[in-house]
Amino acid sequence: MSQPLVGAPHDRVEGPEKVTGEARYTADVVIEGLVHAAVVPSGIANGRIVAVDDSEARAAPGVIEVMTHHNAPRVSAAKPADSDSLLFLLQNDRIEFDRQPIAVVIAQSLEEATYAAQLLHVRYEADHPETNFDAAPRYVPKEIFGEPATHQRGDPEKAFATAPVRIEQTYRTPTEHHNPMETHGTVAQWNGEHLTLHDSSQWAFGVQRRIAKVFGIDAEQVRVIVPYVGGAFGSKGQMWSHVALAAMAAKLVGRPVKLIVTRPQMFGWVGHRPQTEQRVALGAQRDGRLVCVTHDVLSETSVSDEFVEPCAVFSRDLYAVENYGMSHALPRLNISKPTYQRGPGESTGSFAMESAMDELAYEIDIDPLELRLRNYSERQPDSGKPYSSKQLRQCYARAAERFDWGRRVPQPRSMNEGRLLLGLGMATASRNTHRTAAKVRIRANSDGTVVVACGTIEQGCGSPTVYAQLASEILEIPFERVRFEFGDTNLPEAPLAAGSQTSGSVGSVVVKAATWLRDKIADLGGTIPPNGIVLDVADEPGENDESYATQAFGAQFAQVVVDPDTGEVRVVRFVGAFDGGRILNAKTANSQFVGGIVWGISMALFEKTRYDARTARIMNANLSDYLVPTNADIPNPEVIAIEADDPHINPAHVKGIGEVGITGAAAAVANAVYHATGVRVRDLPITPDKLLV
Amino acid sequence: MNPFRYARPSSPSAAFTDFAGERRARYVAGGTNILDLMKIEVESPPLLIDINALALASIEVTGDAIHVGALARLTDVAENEQVRTHLPLVAIALEESASPQLRNMATIGGNLLQRTRCPYFRDTATPCNKRAPKSGCGALGGELRREAVLGTSEHCIATHASDLAVALAALDATVHVTGLSGNREIALHDFYRLPGDTPHVETSLGPGELIVAVSLPLLSYGARSTYLKVRDRAQYDFALASAAVALDLSGKTIRQARVALGGVATIPWRSLQAEALLRNAAASRDTFERAADAALAEARGRGGNDYKIPLAKRTLVRALEIAAA
Amino acid sequence: MLSRRRFFFRAAISTLAAEVALHFRAAAQRLPTVRPNDAAAGTSAARAITINVNGVERTMRVEPRVTLLDALRDRLGLTGTKKGCDQGTCGACTVMVNGRRIDSCLTLAVMHTGDRIVTVEGIAQNGSLHPVQRAFITHDGFQCGFCTPGQIVSAVALLNEGKRLDRDTIRTEMSGNLCRCGCYPHIVDAVLEAAGTS
After folding, report:
1. What count of CB pairs under 8 Å joins A to B?
2. Which numeric CATH code is attached to B225-324?
3. Which of A420, A496, A685, C121 could join A561 in a cystine, given CB atoms 3.0 to 4.6 angstroms apart?
4. ipTM value for the complex
5. What is the H or E stretch that residue A467 is in?
6. CATH code for B5-50?
7. For a pLDDT cut of 90, what percent of chain C falls above it?
8. Which residues of C, range 67-126, sit inside 8 Å of A by Cβ?
């Protein structure tokens, strides 16, 4: 094949389905005899249920059953593993966060279930909820994703004390809810002791194992089918309570049950990015070379569970600095369990670190880009490992050139666009990328078509397209002859589709499988037997994977205008250059990078979950008051992919690219706002009220 | 939603007769507000009276006013050439409202009756004097970012949500209503009620009274008018502060002015104080700033909404600058 | 055109005046003897309604409280139209009613007897994709695809609205359709291309 397939800007193979409405998502699933479930969320954030009067709900038309902690099937809500979440499955009367599930109403129609859920009368004994991030008792977690939560190299404290230039600031990022356009949802059907779930999930196998634990059955008794996922961004990585509640309801009524989480309930039990407070201390020489970095992180967690937003991973692995210290501690609040959200840690951490770097650049009066170059690391500073590849220098150069960074007059409030203040800001992007074990089944049919099957999911990252590209290039057959099957635990096991690991993990085993098949067909003289060829192939990280530091990088440049009267900020231009390893599909990759930038802009300007500090009640649990950007808020980001072969990272030579785009983006916007206005906003989002000077 | 009876009368009289039979009924036209509130249990009428069959959607100029039927959709009014030419503040206020889809649904009459976006009003797990009289005000001491600084009471600080109503307050439009006790005309400044100790009473409409039309006076200087809406997002967002202004200029001197504020008050907030300061004054930033100070002189912030006072001032100054330019 | 409008307005006002007068007397006589529930108008029972969806007359039984969105999805099996918020805040449920785009979650099915509804399933004609659909594929105007049906219907309606479209007007006019994947620039590319070709 003369023309390389990998990297080509192929249209998504599921495009026609998605533009005609034929693509099926979980809520679209219809099963004979299906009934509808509505979750009743709690109205308090701490306390217990004293009494439930379900008589009115039960009397409402169409109601089949009302499931409360009095009659819910007894199951195990406990966490089988540290990585799992405690579930809230109506096993007791305790309430520990706002909108915790406290009952499920099952009725013939959605309207009947929804209305009857409103007729449940619950009496609470409310306790004072812990809502004070600053005052709540905090503790130091044992680890963060398998790494130490507190860590030091050199002696950052001593270095800071003697550093010629010092920056020490505190940055805050708010609670943020993922709000994929598709809310979570599950369709549960029992057949004897066998359970079939249709579920909107990033990890069919995780759901399979967890739900089996809940019911005390074998994982083999559970089949999880994941139709197209309408966005997730981390929120569908865990199995949350409603999945089990749907299965419990189906068991209780002996019918298949559809349970769709409502938009306000998306602020309940399905995870969120925790708010953080980050103290960043930089010590530097007058020429900008860092002598020490300290990054101390507080991030909220829930009363009975643990999640750490690993903000300091970003600063730990980025600049060449001898003395470094980091810590993470967790205040416990009456909130639902936080979880990973696009670029966990590195998005929030980069806001703090890259804002601080901008402050340092102003302090010593050097160009912010030059400051980054003076601290460029050729090896990963903490591990000392070589990078599998690092094109960050090229990212800086190409993005700066495209952006025309050279036109920037450093003085704040020195540039204008008409009567508006103009600001230019930049930041570094970085995201660790790893791979884990994955399996695929490859099958060659006698008609020359090939099916690659893997139980991963499609959430918009382009899986069915890019894996077909990878396989067809190796097999030297037209792209159209390869089909990728996904979304079912009956297929070979895939890892969690998150953490920028899927293309590295699944992609690598696709490469292995396609290579095997190519050789096998060659062995057979180029022919495929009538009953085809099929093989299950597995791959996992080997020793080689441990020898290199594997990170995606980027350079983010933002141009904003700020209305000097009203403080309204609009991002008018954005350029991002990224080192994402080998690009599998230029078109879908561009969308991933752009999407990340959009999330960064959103984080900078819009998103914040607003709690009532007295009650821990979320007061903006809808998409009118919890703001995500509209089309009018987003410019046309220019994305440059700096490609370079990375043979060390994994057999597919790819880095995960779904998350690097958000990292640094909020800082670039915040730095641009400072440049425009002279106001350094250290607590996100940057709203007009913070710029009224 | 609660189960409800549905009626689709073909005349206004049939509509308010239906209402007379069920005083807890609600009218529905565009549906964008009442159905939303029914879904979140803030409203649960036993009867919904669909007034879309009434012939009340026309827009026409008669003498000194543009008469807009209550069922005219926001899109239609925003695109009307007469409105665009003579009363740009109305056209802009409409264009800056909601989304294209919602503007195709929502009606002029319904928009005037749009309920507050106060999060406590919209959340039945919290107290709210407007939703449940005497239950208390959840917003006081709570999440205040969107709450009002003008026209508040100890019982309610909910911000009025409509953009259009702010423009109409500046114009002092006339609301035409009909009901069992006949037809009446209500000047906009009499239409909205301050919350006081009865925040659940929001307008001077009687039970079952139906808005049939709104007259927009063709202010002689209406062409020199604007509506400025300040918000977090560039589109599809409620105002943090807004200003509707019209200026009658003679050279650099202001002969007359109209000023109303939105996003900061419990009702669409016309400021006669600001208008008085502008009258016969020079059209300068200094004048505008004094007018803005006057408009917000009685404003009261409660912490989380303190920023609205300077923001509303700046918004008004900027709107006046735009109108004067 | 203007005179037609004027006619309708006057007709409405005069009918109104006559009715109000008539009703006034009738009400005065009747009201004291009427118990509210006896005068109850309408019914909450499910009723058969017929609406024209994608050119086909469809009859279904629905309670008054069933939204047009749920009627399309749950009663007619047209699941292309999506429920993103059910509160008129996201645009995923956008359909056209008599040629205009609306949010189908904030209107009742019973309010649309006799209306012409077009959903995403009715955009392609005779098995051939609409230029907007083709442009969304070419420009990668979607990732997860969940908001896409609403975006497509909204874009088709926008093209029919006859406005001059450039990047900025498209951004504004498409702002009623949220996309969380962040495909906005590509959506604008797609609408621009379709505006030039359709």
Report:
1. 93
2. 3.30.390.50
3. A420
4. 0.97
5. helix A463-475
6. 3.30.43.10
7. 75
8. 70, 73-74, 77-87, 89-90, 92, 119-121, 123-124
